């Protein structure tokens, strides 16, 4: 209250208000209907003071306001602002937002597909576009004052993350950087790096959600609160949150209840009545079906909701289940509005394509307020779903996790069916960071009082684990930066090798590696102090005890080595004896559970690699199948034969013998005991120990006895100190190797890449050759392979459709790795060219191995994937959509996405290929772009 202020305080407050009115922030704040949060004001003030900012805040907290203030400042100062996003959908969305605020003339868009008003002062673009502009030295960079990097935590992405670091490192010093990130646990570390490479950077971290989030578990008919008392609603309040005891009791009861139809009761299987009783007991709690969940949320006023299902097919199935259940979430007026919007947005789609795309089924679900959202959908369809959801005309969306990556689709509730997802290699628990990202969609600012995260009950669910996911609000940002061939030639061209190396050592990856070295270095220092103490403890007045200890150690190592050699030799002898066994041999198994007399039924598999039901399996040696004297049929292993085995006698095995028949086993075992039960196996004589005749051991023992310290009364005390010294010294050397491995790692990788490029005549010292200049214009995972194909003329003489097929191999990667079915390929020139591309890749792969460039570390050229070649060829040959999609067995959204990536690389090839002489590649690459950019591929681009 101003009435409570003293005159001096009132005067100071008035001056502060007047000072604020004089800032650029004051008129900017008036552009919004709501007041800015403290973290937004703090970040905007830092920007206006000329500092860069890193803003780390939860999803939906409004951190993009800070990016929009950078746009505001750029326009006030007559400078440019580039607003970068990780994906085209986000760029399109942000472009639409800024056009509404500033008008078409001031805002442009640059993505792989679109170029709209490229000369505007405000340009929205994908991060790759800005990276390419920096390397090309584009004139568009002139007058650039601000760069906003939205979703900057993408630099952790192992496939594309390096692009973010390239941009941050190479932006001119005069550009102010605005970095917007999800809440990460090492924001200060990232901010320190930004401060190092970009200058004065303010780190602003906000961990409070603008809309409180309530966490629930839906089990059967009951919705349980996850926490007994959620005082901080998913934030980091001071009060401790306890897991709901009712939920803990439920989990304990349900998870401890077992049902196994093989349980035996009085020697018999459980009767059907008992099974039915067990089923009735278990039916008290169940996992609700998808229509049931939506119906429940609707009844409790918790729609609109996004249900995350980690499967495209699962999303489509969920929509169908809701339709079959008769769910209707829209009234007649909403249905009419949905149809109007859909028909307007899809008017450009040819009628003959609508049926192929599943348009009518999709529209029916939309009219009922239900939709799927995943990467396999046509981009136009996804954009319509997003628009209808934001307008409140779609109330239930079933989505894969890609929806959580920045698309502005907040909901009142978020549902997670499972806490496990396929990560490309195995089914793994979702991380706290992923849980935070997914549930961050719940709660619409300015609309909802609170948001709700609902996890469906699954047998085995651990409420404590779920509470850990919900309570851990952050995850660490880890650099995925790795040098590439294209990056190397561009850097050397601009800065030379030495300066390029220095630049790469400023990467966040190296920054993190260097910081991790600090702790290891401290441990090395402590170890060195400990070594001094141990050295004093082993000091002997009679001589050099360190030398004496080394002799003892050498003697022990030699004895151990010989013992291992002896054991290996015995195993080899035993394996060789097993390989000599034949069916009908009577043997004595020397040890193990089945020791004693046995008859060989099958000598087993020879040592080596065999093709089993799980693929190739490895065996140490033969595994004979035997019948023991106790009537057991067992397959033995080499471990049962520590010594060689010899046949004691021979027996005929009846043709009628059935190892599964107890009577057959009994009869043959009886015959075995009669035939050979009286034979006593010869005792195996162990060979003389190799150590007894070893000259090296004799020499070491002689030197040991002659050493002065051998006669010391405290010899064993000194030896104990010497042993500690040796162990600590060994550990210290391992730590030093770790330090060496982490120091200059990026620069060493760069050196290897430069060496390979020099071998291939892309670089000559600090000079980039004509081959290198061509490579500098090719961006992508297989940049070097594309360049080599151009150099060797692999694509000369191909028509546009054939060229599209070949270029598809540079970008396409099958979702299911190691597909057993060979891909269908176009015939003729295209097939020959694809074969030549694979041959060139094989040569490059061998070269990379020679130069120690490791694909497992994210560097190098993967094998080209020919799985999209047929589809690209057919589409570029003007085949119909129905025919192409049917033969490709691919969803429309995937088909469009891969076509656009092929178009992008074709554009690069058109620019990089020779323009003079007899070369047809550049001209045909442009024709291939025109051939691909039609129908479903053309009208799915947002303009």
Q: Topology of this protein?
A:
Blueprint: H1 7-21, H2 25-29, H3 38-48, E1 52-56, H4 64-77, E2 80-85, H5 88-102, E3 107-110, E4 115-116, E5 122-126, H6 127-136, E6 144-149, H7 162-170, E7 176-181, H8 187-198, E8 201-205, E9 213-219, E10 222-225, H9 245-256, E11 264-265, E12 268-269, H10 272-282, H11 290-299, E13 305-308, H12 312-324, H13 332-345, H14 351-356, H15 359-367, E14 370-373, H16 379-390, E15 396-399, E16 413-416, E17 420-422, E18 427-429, H17 432-439, E19 451-456, H18 463-471, H19 485-504, H20 508-537, H21 545-579, E20 585-589, E21 596-602, E22 608-612, E23 615-619, E24 625-628, E25 633-635, E26 649-650, H22 662-676, H23 695-706, H24 715-742, H25 745-759, E27 763-764, E28 767-768, H26 770-775, H27 783-791, H28 800-811, H29 829-850, H30 869-876, H31 881-888, H32 892-912, H33 921-932, H34 935-939
Parallel strand pairs: 1-7, 1-8, 2-5, 2-6, 3-5, 6-7, 9-19, 13-15, 13-16, 14-15, 16-19
Antiparallel strand pairs: 3-4, 9-10, 11-12, 17-18, 20-21, 20-26, 21-24, 22-23, 24-25, 27-28
Helix pairs in contact: 3-4, 6-7, 17-18, 19-25, 20-24, 21-23, 28-29, 28-30, 28-32, 28-33, 30-31, 32-33
Explain the overall architecture.
By secondary structure, this protein is an alpha/beta fold. Helices cover 48% and strands 12% of the residues. The protein has 34 helices and 28 strands. The protein is globular and about 105 Å long.
Radius of gyration: 36 Å
Which band does the percent of strand residues land in? Answer: 5-15%
Compute the number of helices. Answer: 34
- First-last Cα distance: 52 Å
Average residue-wise pLDDT: 83
Task: Tell me the number of strands.
Answer: 28
Going by helix content, strand content and strand pairing, the class is alpha/beta
C-alpha geometry = globular
The largest sheet has its strands arranged as: 4-3-5-2-6-7-1-8
Quick one: biggest sheet?
A: 8 strands, mixed
| Helicity range | 40-55%
Contiguous uncertain segments of 5+ residues: 230-239, 261-270, 607-619
């Amino acid at each position: 209250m101003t009435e409570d202020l003293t005159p001096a305080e009132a005067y100071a407050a008035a001056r502060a208000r007047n000072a604020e009115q004089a800032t650029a922030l004051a008129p900017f704040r008036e552009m919004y209907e709501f007041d800015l949060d403290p973290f937004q004001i703090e970040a905007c003030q830092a920007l206006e003071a000329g500092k860069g900012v890193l803003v780390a805040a939860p999803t939906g907290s409004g951190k993009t306001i800070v990016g929009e203030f950078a746009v505001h400042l750029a326009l006030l100062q007559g400078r440019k602002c580039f607003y970068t996003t990780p994906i085209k959908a986000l760029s399109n969305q942000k472009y639409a937002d800024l056009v509404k605020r500033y008008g078409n003339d001031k805002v442009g868009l640059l993505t792989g597909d679109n170029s709209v008003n490229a000369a505007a002062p405000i340009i929205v673009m994908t991060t790759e576009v800005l990276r390419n502009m920096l390397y090309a030295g584009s004139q568009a960079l002139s007058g650039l004052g601000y760069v906003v990097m939205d979703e900057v935590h993408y630099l952790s992405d192992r496939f594309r993350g390096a692009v973010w670091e390239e941009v941050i490192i190479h932006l001119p010093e005069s550009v102010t950087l605005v970095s917007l990130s999800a809440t990460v646990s090492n924001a200060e570390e990232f901010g320190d790096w930004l401060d190092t490479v970009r200058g004065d950077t303010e780190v602003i971290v906000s961990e409070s959600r603008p809309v409180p989030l309530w966490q629930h578990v839906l089990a059967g008919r009951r919705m349980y609160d996850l926490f007994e008392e959620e005082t901080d609603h998913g934030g980091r309040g001071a009060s401790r949150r306890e897991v709901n005891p009712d939920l803990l009791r439920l989990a304990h009861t349900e998870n401890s209840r077992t049902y196994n139809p093989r349980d035996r009761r009085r020697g018999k299987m459980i009767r059907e009545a008992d099974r039915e009783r067990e089923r009735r007991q278990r039916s008290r709690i169940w996992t609700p079906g998808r229509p049931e969940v939506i119906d429940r949320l609707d009844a409790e006023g918790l729609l609109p909701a996004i249900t995350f299902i980690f499967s495209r097919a699962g999303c489509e199935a969920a929509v169908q289940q809701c339709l079959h259940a008769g769910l209707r979430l829209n009234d007649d007026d909403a249905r009419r509005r949905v149809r109007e919007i859909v028909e307007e947005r899809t008017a450009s789609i040819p009628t003959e394509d609508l049926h192929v795309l599943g348009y009518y089924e999709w529209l029916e679900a939309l009219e009922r307020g239900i939709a799927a959202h995943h990467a396999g959908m046509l981009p136009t369809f996804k954009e319509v779903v997003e628009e209808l959801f934001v307008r409140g005309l779609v109330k239930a969306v079933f989505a894969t996790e890609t929806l959580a990556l920045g698309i502005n689709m907040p909901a009142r509730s978020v549902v997670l069916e499972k806490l496990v997802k396929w990560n490309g290699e195995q089914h793994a628990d979702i991380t706290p960071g992923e849980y935070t990202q997914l549930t961050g969609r719940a709660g619409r600012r300015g609309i909802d009082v609170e948001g709700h995260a609902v996890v469906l009950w699954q047998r085995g669910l651990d409420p404590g684990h779920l509470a850990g996911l919900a309570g851990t609000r952050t995850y660490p940002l880890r650099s995925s930066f790795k040098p590439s061939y294209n990056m190397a030639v561009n850097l050397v061209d601009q800065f030379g090798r030495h300066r390029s190396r220095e630049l790469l050592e400023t990467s966040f990856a190296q920054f993190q590696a260097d910081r991790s070295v600090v702790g290891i270095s401290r441990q090395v220092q402590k170890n060195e102090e400990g070594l001094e103490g141990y050295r004093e403890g082993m000091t002997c007045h009679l001589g050099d005890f360190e030398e004496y200890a080394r002799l003892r150690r050498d003697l022990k190592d030699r004895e151990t080595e010989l013992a291992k050699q002896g054991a290996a030799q015995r195993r080899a002898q035993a394996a060789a004896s097993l390989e000599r066994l034949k069916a009908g041999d009577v043997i004595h198994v020397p040890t193990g559970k089945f020791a004693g007399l046995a008859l060989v039924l099958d000598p087993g598999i020879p040592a080596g690699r065999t093709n089993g039901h799980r693929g190739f399996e490895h065996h140490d040696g033969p595994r004979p199948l035997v019948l023991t004297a106790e009537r057991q049929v067992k397959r033995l292993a080499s471990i049962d034969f520590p010594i060689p085995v010899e046949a004691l006698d021979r027996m005929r095995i009846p043709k009628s013998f059935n190892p599964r028949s107890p009577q057959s086993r009994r009869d043959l075992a009886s015959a075995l005991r009669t035939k050979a039960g009286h034979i006593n196996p010869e005792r195996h004589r162990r060979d003389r120990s190799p150590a007894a005749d070893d000259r090296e051991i004799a020499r070491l023992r002689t030197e040991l006895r002659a050493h002065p310290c051998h006669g010391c009364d405290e010899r064993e005390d000194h030896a104990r100190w010497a042993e500690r010294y040796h162990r600590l010294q060994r550990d210290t050397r391992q730590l030093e190797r770790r330090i060496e491995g982490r120091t200059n790692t990026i620069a060493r990788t760069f050196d290897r890449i430069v060496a390979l490029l020099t071998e291939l005549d892309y670089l000559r010292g600090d000079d980039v050759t004509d081959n290198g200049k061509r490579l500098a214009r090719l961006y992508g995972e297989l940049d070097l392979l594309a360049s080599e194909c151009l150099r060797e003329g692999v694509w000369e003489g191909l028509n546009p459709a054939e060229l599209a097929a070949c270029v598809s191999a540079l970008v396409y990667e099958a979702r299911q790795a190691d597909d057993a079915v060979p891909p269908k390929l176009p015939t003729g020139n295209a097939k020959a060219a694809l074969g030549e591309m694979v041959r060139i890749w094989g040569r490059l792969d061998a070269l990379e191995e020679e130069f120690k460039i490791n694909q497992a570390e994210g560097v190098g050229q993967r094998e080209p994937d020919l799985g999209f070649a047929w589809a690209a060829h057919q589409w570029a040959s003007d085949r119909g959509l129905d025919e192409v999609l049917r033969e490709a067995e691919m969803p429309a959204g995937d088909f469009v996405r891969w076509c656009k990536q092929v178009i992008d690389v074709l554009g690069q090839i058109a620019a990089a290929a020779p323009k003079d002489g007899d070369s047809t590649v550049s001209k045909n690459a442009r024709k291939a772009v025109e051939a691909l950019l039609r129908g479903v591929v053309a009208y799915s681009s947002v303009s």
